[in-house]
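Give me the fold.
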Amino acid sequence: MNKRNAEKTKRKMKRLDMSRGIKRTHKKEKRSGQRRKERRSKEERRSKERRNISTLKKQKGGGDITGIILGMLDEKYVPFLPTTNCVNDRKAVSSYLSSVSAFQLLSIIGKKDKYVNSNNISGLIEDVDSKSTEIFRVLGSLTNIPESRKIMANFTINCSKLSRSRSASMKELHSHILDCEDYLSVKNIDWYEVALGLKPFDDEFENAILGELRNRRIIIDTDKFHYGLKLLKKDEKVKKIFKHRILECGNKPQGFFDKLFGTVSWDSYNECFKCSDNSCVVQLDDNYKTFLNQKHDILTVDKVKILIYAELRLRELSKHFSLEAVRLNSAKTSKVKSLLNKVYNDDIKMNNISNNSLTQHVMKRNAKTGEREPVITVKTSKQNIYGYTVEIKGASRVVYSPDKPLSCGAKVWMETNETCIIDNGKERLEV
């Protein structure tokens, strides 16, 4: 009996141990599951916070704007900045934001084959040099490559063709091309020399600075410290300090509602000037203290005057950088596209349409220059591919449709659902 009781007791103990083990494993699993849930929730919270921060930056006009301004400040010459009249006029601001450069115009034209058949528009394309043409033919993706941008930057528009055109749409287009118009923008600005006052920006800008000096009862004779301005022209440290000030005052030109309505309220400009009343002239932050402490062969009194003078110019100049950054960031091309469509439709009505294609332009240029650029086009749903020979691996058909041409203007073409082998002189592509 004792042996039986002992065996029963052992069996019970084993069962108990097993149940305890099961309970322990269950507890461990629960704990690990809870930990996993906690980790997931933390990760979700973090990702949500990141999304909220990026959204907030966009709403405030940060993020891309800062990068764009820095990019402009790193260049010796800024291609375009809005005029002072433009900055101070809401309607002009709207026009400026819907304007494009010559390069942007070329990009828009290059993405629509039909524009080549418009004699008015094709007249603009003819000004593209032979090197740029290679990029022009596959403009969509290649415009993002820095090297291609350098090449395409050489593209210039014959502005007289636009202004002298009989087409009202062409004349209106002239006022939306920054390279052509002379009211909205100032071209090729050496911003550092403007900031120092060694070069004027425009008459209205200079008058605004003089007006600010008068309002604050500041008497400054720039001729007396002109020698100091010339010395600072070559000082990269001072240039860096000036960059920081423009960025500080110009990095947030738009608030949330500005983004929605396409307006500019100069938020950071209004915030960056702490001496709003006449009790002080300039706030000495760490950057300006660094400037005053730097050793230059300039009298201290002249250095202080230079700082006051430059501060007024930098703060005013920041608005111009802000507006240009907004234009580049928003890339509003709908107005220009609308005008190009009007020009195209007007040319159709006036029978000013040629049965041209981009390939025909290339063939004419090959005959003139002696170059041998490929002219056979294979169109897919995604892209246009150019080559010297095309081999069709299967059935195809030739279509003649003069009443319903393709968007590019072609009235005769070949169609196939089979594989095509294209030889572009460098490689054989299969599509």
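The beta strands are 78-82, 185-189, 376-379, 384-387, 389-393, 397-400, 412-415, 419-423, 428-430.
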